[in-house]
């Protein structure tokens, strides 16, 4: 072996990893942990408990240590310099600035006689914990970008999302029909309506959007076998039924958005025209008609199963024609103007990450009996929490995601293309849902969202379909 072969680069660009390169044992363990973290968080009530984050932190530390050990063994530091990581770093920076003691008159003594916080954030403790979570998300996302670097791992990640999503949907439907006293039969949620392992039924619907995108994309794949089509169709029907049973209007809208996104991208990209341009346009028309009929059939089957299991009330509420005597906005028409007022009073850096509940009380004209923690619109809350600076980071992330994702779809073939379309569709669905709720504030949804962002954008070439 000559000298040039013995020298290893200190930093290895994950974009340059060649398909078929043998993966080390350590990198395989890291990839396994990256798949385990979102599944574990989902099972543990979506990761909303602080105790769950103790275990997540252990996983996070293990990923970092194994990553460093992989580097120490001489394989080089595997890293994907994707620009998608920059907006997350920007959000972390904003959170740290909000914790600086620049709050001025907030340093006066409180009612208890103790010195209050002088931080820019109105709720420093919540902002500090939010910033810590962002650091965890950044490491997880960087790991996904770096270690989903070949066809085999891409296929495993896609299968994990589909199988786990279908399993959770089946469990959620069974739990809804059994109507137990609490999640898993022991955890009560008196202030929320649970579904599956989630405390919030709307966030379970968002989880179905994330997992349903890949399922639908592969189902409409060009060369998929009949047996796999049946399995994927069964999975997406169960997911659709679960979404309808949550009675989440935003969830149903997001799920429909996933479906429409996949259809639109496939049609506009011309992928169903086939490699042979000499074929008559009749073939293309037949494919489009067949796809449309398949989509209609899926919708009819989902609605049929919902009615069969007695979910007509959930269906009626989901489409907004039930409980006409109740505010159809569920208070959003009260929350949203207040979020805008908070933003106008803190236009540049916001009132503080996760400080909406504290800031809300100053502008609330209701009785104050209920504490409102979220604006039920992720974009308005981003403006209220982090001002124009945070909103710019979110807008930049979305722009980069779709630019890179659509480029991947345009350049890739086979499984790589199906995975990119499905992952981007799932992200699109939950971004639509975020106009009416805060699904990405649930940690498990955030982990799956970042995993799908990696699946949609990592430069992995594929020669076969699932």
List keywords for this structure.
single chain; 466 residues; mainly alpha; two-stranded parallel ribbon; 16 helices; 2 strands; globular
Any overview of this molecule?
By secondary structure, the chain is mainly α. It has one domain. It is built from 16 helices and two strands. It has helices at residues 3-6, 25-43, 50-75, 85-98, 124-147, 151-178, 201-219, 226-245, 249-269, 281-308, 312-318, 332-345, 356-363, 378-411, 414-433, 443-457; strands at 11-13, 77-79. It has a two-stranded parallel sheet with strand order 1-2. It is globular. Residues 1-9, 16-22, 107-115, 272-280, 308-312 and 318-322 have low confidence and may be disordered.
Q: Tally the helices: what do you get?
A: 16
> What's the mean pLDDT score?
82
Residue ranges: pLDDT <50 for 5 or more in a row?
Answer: 1-9, 16-22, 107-115, 272-280, 308-312, 318-322
Biggest sheet details: 2 strands, parallel
Q: What number of domains?
A: 1
Structure in a nutshell:
Helix content is 65%, strand content 1%. It is mostly helical.
Annotate the secondary structure layout.
Elements: H1 3-6, E1 11-13, H2 25-43, H3 50-75, E2 77-79, H4 85-98, H5 124-147, H6 151-178, H7 201-219, H8 226-245, H9 249-269, H10 281-308, H11 312-318, H12 332-345, H13 356-363, H14 378-411, H15 414-433, H16 443-457
Parallel strand pairs: 1-2
Helix pairs in contact: 2-3, 2-5, 2-16, 3-5, 4-5, 4-14, 5-16, 6-7, 6-8, 7-8, 7-9, 7-15, 7-16, 8-10, 9-15, 12-13, 12-14, 14-15, 15-16
């Amino acid at each position: 072996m000559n000298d040039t072969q013995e020298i290893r680069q200190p930093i290895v660009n994950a974009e340059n990893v060649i398909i078929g390169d043998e993966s080390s044992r350590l990198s395989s363990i890291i990839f396994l942990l990256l798949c385990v973290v979102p599944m574990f968080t989902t099972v543990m009530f979506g990761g909303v408990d602080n105790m769950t984050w103790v275990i997540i932190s252990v996983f996070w530390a293990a990923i970092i240590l194994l990553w460093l050990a992989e580097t120490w063994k001489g394989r080089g530091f595997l890293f994907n310099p994707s620009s998608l990581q920059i907006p997350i770093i920007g959000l972390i920076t904003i959170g740290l600035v909000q914790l600086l003691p620049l709050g001025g008159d907030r340093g006066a003594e409180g009612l208890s006689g103790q010195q209050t916080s002088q931080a820019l954030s109105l709720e420093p403790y919540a902002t500090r914990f939010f910033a810590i979570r962002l650091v965890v998300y950044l490491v997880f996302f960087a790991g996904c970008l770096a270690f989903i670097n070949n066809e085999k791992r891409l296929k495993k990640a896609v299968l994990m999302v589909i199988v786990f999503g279908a399993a959770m949907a089946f469990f959620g439907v069974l739990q809804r029909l059994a109507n137990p006293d609490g999640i898993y039969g022991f955890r009560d949620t008196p202030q929320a309506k649970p579904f599956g392992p989630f405390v919030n039924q709307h966030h379970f619907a968002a989880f179905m959007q994330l997992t349903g995108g890949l399922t639908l994309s592969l189902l409409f794949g060009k060369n998929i076998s009949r047996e796999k089509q049946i399995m994927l169709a069964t999975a997406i029907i169960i997911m659709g039924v679960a979404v309808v049973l949550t009675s989440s209007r935003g969830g149903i809208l997001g799920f429909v958005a996933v479906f429409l996104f996949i259809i639109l991208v496939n049609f506009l990209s011309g992928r169903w025209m086939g490699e042979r341009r000499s074929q008559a346009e009749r073939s293309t028309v037949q494919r489009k008609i067949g796809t449309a009929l398949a989509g209609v059939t899926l919708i009819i089957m989902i609605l049929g199963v919902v009615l069969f299991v007695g979910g007509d009330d959930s269906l009626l509420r989901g489409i907004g024609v039930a409980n006409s005597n109740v505010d159809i906005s569920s208070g959003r028409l009260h929350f949203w103007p207040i979020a805008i007022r908070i933003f106008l009073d803190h236009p540049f850096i916001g009132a503080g990450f996760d400080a909406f509940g504290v800031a809300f009380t100053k502008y609330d004209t209701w009785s104050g009996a209920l504490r409102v923690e979220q604006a039920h619109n992720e974009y308005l809350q981003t403006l209220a929490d982090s001002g124009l600076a945070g909103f710019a980071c979110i807008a930049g992330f979305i722009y980069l995601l779709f630019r890179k994702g659509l480029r991947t779809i345009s350049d890739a073939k086979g499984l790589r293309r199906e995975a990119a379309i499905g992952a981007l569709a799932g992200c699109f669905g939950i971004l639509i849902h975020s106009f009416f709720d805060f699904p990405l504030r649930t940690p498990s949804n955030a982990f799956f969202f970042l995993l799908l962002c990696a699946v949609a954008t990592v430069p992995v070439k594929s020669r076969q379909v699932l």
